[in-house]
Amino acid sequence: MDQHPFIPLPGYRTRPEEEMMQRARDFHVELKRRRTVRHFSGRPVSRAIIDECLAAAMTAPSGANLQPWHFVVVSDPQTKRRIREAAEEEERRFYRERAPQEWLDALAPLGTDEHKPFLETAPYLIAVFSQKHGRLADGRKVKHYYPMESVGLATGMLISALHLAGLATLTHTPSPMAFLNQILGRPKSAERPFLLVVTGYPDKDATVPDIGRKPFGEVVSYV
Ligand code: IYR
Asked: Which of 98, 173, 195, 211 most suits a substitution to test ligand 1, by most atoms within 8 Å of the C-beta?
């Protein structure tokens, strides 16, 4: 394949260092306010906002720029119910049989269990799929590289965009998630469900666990 034409870096401008610091700080402060929320209001959210956030997610870097992702935005109540029922069935097995004690102990402080009412209350469930391969117009397969890493980056950008827009999110990973391929009609051979981004306004009585983050110096080293 021919190399793409190369163009001058579009839209880049240098900024005074003070402005850089202010922007970095503002972004940090804003992201620090993001919390995983498990109590959603049923208040509808305009699809245009979701689309804008998805468009932001799709700017993520990806292996060989092959963009190995697909997003299914679910708002249909019947489909949400089917997803809730399937997820709760898996989660029951997880909490009662499959999860090793060590895992249950790690989750205990967060108070999660097999009940997932938010899968019906939240106006949107965004199912993120990672694609092992894509298809050319003529049906030929195109292998994707680093799909998990790429989709992880896009999902991080998606939850940041949704947060910045003023919405609450919950990254939910029912395990196993193969039922999502079936319910949402996505090809099983090419696509793996990555996670569900439960999206909406927080319930007015929403609470979150009082947790923090590791100290900076523990997480960052300079060499
Ligand atoms: N998927 C289960 C369990 C769970 C696992 C992890 I790792 C979490 O950070 C939270 C929950 C559930 O959603 O309840």
From this structure: 173
